[in-house]
């Protein structure tokens, strides 16, 4: 797989690197298919606890590859629809991955790259990085990435940046809530390591359940059905082997089994 580099620095951590630095890690059909496959395979790894998504070279992701865009320029409606559905499924594979995904945005992040960033559960960006939803400049729109980007930055911010296609920097992305932390470039990897270590230290099944809980709670009214459902979920996890081990290890002042290994 020449468009991606996949590393396993520890049994618990996987790194997926966009590896097309010569074209600023731009999307083509091979990269899209590779990302979908990689996230699908890693999601099924019972030992894995966290996935890091980053980019090689100077740019995180510049959106669509020019050669890929040239090919699409000759497509009819049916071909464009099929092509867009492949991209939509790749984004869904990232967003629906049960494992926590940490994004490392070390360089500029445009168009489709914004979709990748928006699918991450934790997003770190280096100071000075530029973000842009540039589609409208080309007479297009950020449709397939739209649901994830609107969720990540909010409707009001999306109204502006979808329409104007303005660039905005990492500090603005942080203020909008799109980026969780904005750090000096030299400190990016150290902070990333701290986030990864925090995730690995937690109960692996609890982390997955927490990720799903956020998705299931977002936008729902706090009615009797939701109160009952959340009570059931905490009862389920308290009664689970991991939940029992976590509480027992806390009371006994020792490391839980998942951390000891």
Structure described in brief:
The protein is of the alpha/beta class and 261 residues long.
Written description of the protein model:
- The chain is an alpha/beta fold and 261 residues long.
- The protein contains twelve helices and nine strands.
- The protein has two domains: 4-199, 2-enoyl-CoA Hydratase, Chain A, domain 1, CATH 3.90.226.10; 202-260, Lyase 2-enoyl-coa Hydratase, Chain  A, domain 2.
- It has helices spanning 29-43, 66-73, 77-95, 112-118, 146-153, 155-164, 170-176, 188-201, 204-217, 224-239, 241-251, 257-260; strands at 4-10, 13-18, 50-55, 101-105, 109-110, 122-126, 130-132, 167-169, 181-183.
- The strands form two sheets. The chain has a six-stranded mixed β-sheet, with helices on both faces. The chain has a three-stranded mixed β-sheet with strand order 5-7-8.
- The two termini are 31 Å apart.
Sequence-ordered SSE layout with sheet pairings:
Elements: E1 4-10, E2 13-18, H1 29-43, E3 50-55, H2 66-73, H3 77-95, E4 101-105, E5 109-110, H4 112-118, E6 122-126, E7 130-132, H5 146-153, H6 155-164, E8 167-169, H7 170-176, E9 181-183, H8 188-201, H9 204-217, H10 224-239, H11 241-251, H12 257-260
Parallel strand pairs: 2-3, 3-4, 4-6, 5-7, 6-9
Antiparallel strand pairs: 1-2, 7-8
Helix pairs in contact: 1-3, 4-5, 5-6
Question: Can you tag this structure with a few keywords?
Answer:
261 residues; alpha/beta; 2-enoyl-CoA Hydratase, Chain A, domain 1; Lyase 2-enoyl-coa Hydratase, Chain  A, domain 2; 2 domains; 3-stranded mixed beta sheet; 9 strands
